[in-house]
Design brief:
Layout (H helix, E strand, L loop, with lengths): L1 E5 L6 H12 L2 E4 L1 H13 L7 H10 L2 E4 L6 E4 L2 E2 L7 H11 L2 H15 L4 E5 L2 H5 L5 E6 L2 H12 L8 H17 L12 E4 L5 H13 L2
């Protein structure tokens, strides 16, 4: 079975996807980490993230691995564990730039499909149910207020970056929403057959239970 969970930044999709995958003993794949990996690699080399041909070459050649880890999944780039590094907000902004590029998306979508071909996978992102796996057995689309999503991101990152400002994070969330929903290639939209889940006032456990019950009703 393939389970697709889409939604904007901070909606809880990654956290819930990990928990659902763990309960089902499925493989969890965070597709956003792929775009972040490309952006992180380019930033580390001082490259221009708006140069699509260069970003495509990185996407084609980069060795990205997903392995079981303490957080449910560790991301390795060229053998280096970059799980924490990819959560940096600068990397996130870079990923938004990279993710809007047609050929980069084609390369990474092909990888995502290859990973999911064997089934028994929970995959989260922004176009899983619409582009990557429109035939997914179960599709969910998470939403939440921007303020709540910003608060969640702030709580997640503040211990590692005491200088973070909540208002700035909320504005960055809104800007990322605008970019994701208005890009020409694979914009963030709810699949017609996806179940929408508003996570604003729900705990992670409540959302996970809701998703799990729906999956069991397949």
């Amino acid at each position: 079975m393939i389970i697709a969970i889409d939604g904007p930044a901070g909606s809880g999709k990654s956290t819930v996807a990990k928990l659902v995958a763990k309960r089902l003993n499925y493989r969890y794949i965070d597709t956003g980490a792929m775009y972040r990996a490309v952006a992180w690699t380019a930033q580390k080399k001082g490259l221009d993230l708006t140069d699509e041909s260069v970003m495509t070459k990185i996407a084609l050649s980069l060795n990205i691995e997903f392995v079981p880890g303490a957080e449910g999944q560790s991301v390795l780039v060229e053998g280096e564990n970059v799980t924490t590094l990819l959560k940096n907000e600068t990397v996130g902004r870079g990923a938004a730039t990279v993710a809007a590029q047609k050929f980069v998306r084609e390369v990474l979508v092909a990888r995502q499909r290859q990973i999911g071909e064997t089934g028994n996978v929970v995959m989260d992102g922004r176009d899983i149910g619409t582009v990557v796996f429109p035939q997914a057995d179960k599709k969910f689309f998470f939403v939440a207020d921007a303020e709540e999503r910003g608060r969640r991101r702030y709580e997640e990152l503040k211990s590692k970056n005491p200088g973070l400002d909540l208002k700035t994070i909320i504005e960055e969330i809104r800007q990322r929403d605008h970019e994701d929903r208005n890009r020409k290639i694979s914009p963030l939209v709810k699949a017609d057959d996806a179940l929408e889940v508003d996570t604003t006032r729900l705990s992670i456990e409540e959302v996970t239970d809701h998703i799990f019950k729906n999956i069991n009703n397949l």
